[in-house]
Amino acid sequence: MTATIIDGKAFAAKVRGKVAEHVARLKADFGIAPGLAVVLVGTDPASEVYVRNKGIASRETGMNSFEHKLPADVTAAALYALIDRLNADPTVHGILVQFPVPAHLSETEIVARIDPAKDVDGLHILNAGLLASGGKAMVSCTPLGCLMLLRDQLGSLSGMNAVVVGRSNLVGKPMAQLLLRESCTVTIAHSRTRELASVCRGADILVAAVGRPQMITCDFIRPGATVIDVGINRVTHEGKTRLVGDVDFASAVQVAGAITPVPGGVGPMTIACLLANTVTAACRANDLPEPEGLTA
């Protein structure tokens, strides 16, 4: 068996197209332009690239993009003052502080400072609680992207057995909650799970988000299962560096029914879902119907 390759890059382009359509409609019908504010502290090269790409993606869909660059030695008080201003600004519907931040700043406190309604990263404790309790939450972008890919590939997920390998607040836990909402039977596993391969082989849907390069081999996968690889790991072999996932793609593709590659799978969906979340936040802020197909 050779698995179907789930093309996240192509699907992300469709999501961005839907976002652009909704943005155009909000502007034409209500005079509302969704706005995304991204805050960068310091000069980390990778973070600078991410922030630049998010700004480009926002503008390409017709959104307003607000970029705030702060020095690495900015005080917590100054950063919080900026977040407070963005919270109060009606033209800003989504706020994202690019992580990591310098060591003297607390990521937990930064997230807590952001208005939950503008928390397009879905990290605020209120959004985590709403998601867990079945309420209307802002959902973390990467799990939301995974869910969209699964719905597109499988249709209804109801009744399927799903295993999520990874328990992070950013991916593992919200992914499990989203799958529960889809009426899956969900197991959260991790690197210390006993008989992990056996647990994973029981899955119709296997989501790998453990942060260990190529940990999930073909022995972990039930024939025909759908595998979503969230991992992005940079490895060096014979002097050459390349990106690999948490799944050993070469062996897994021979067993799985469908699988996301790395790169080109889940990664492109993250920024697409950030844009989708910003549109959703703009609609909620103005008591308008949420954009169909762009929310959980």
Could you explain the architecture of this structure?
This protein has 296 residues and is an alpha/beta fold. The protein has ten helices and eleven strands. A hairpin with a 2-residue loop joins β9 and β10. α1 runs parallel beside α10, α6 packs across α7 and α6 packs across α10. It is globular. The relative contact order is 0.17.
Spatial strand arrangement across the major sheet = 1-11-8-7-5-6
* Helical residue percent band: 40-55%
What is the count of helical runs?
10
* Dominant shape: globular
- Give the overall pLDDT as a whole number: 95
DSSP strand count: 11
Q: Which residue ranges are poorly predicted, with pLDDT under 50 across at least 5 consecutive positions?
A: none
* First and last CA, distance: 32 Å
Succession of helices and strands: EHEHEHEHHHEHEHEEEEHEH
Q: Tell me the major beta sheet.
A: 6 strands, parallel
Report the structural category: alpha/beta
Strand percentage, roughly? 15-25%
Rg, Å, rounded: 19 Å
How are the secondary structure elements laid out?
Layout: E1 4-5, H1 8-30, E2 35-41, H2 45-60, E3 64-70, H3 76-88, E4 94-97, H4 107-113, H5 125-133, H6 141-154, E5 161-165, H7 172-181, E6 185-189, H8 196-201, E7 205-208, E8 226-229, E9 233-237, E10 240-244, H9 249-252, E11 258-259, H10 267-285
Parallel strand pairs: 1-11, 2-3, 2-4, 5-6, 5-7, 7-8, 8-11
Antiparallel strand pairs: 9-10
Helix pairs in contact: 1-10, 6-7, 6-10
List its salient traits:
single chain, 296 residues, alpha/beta, 3-stranded parallel sheet, 17% strand, globular
Short description:
The chain is of the alpha/beta class and 296 residues long.
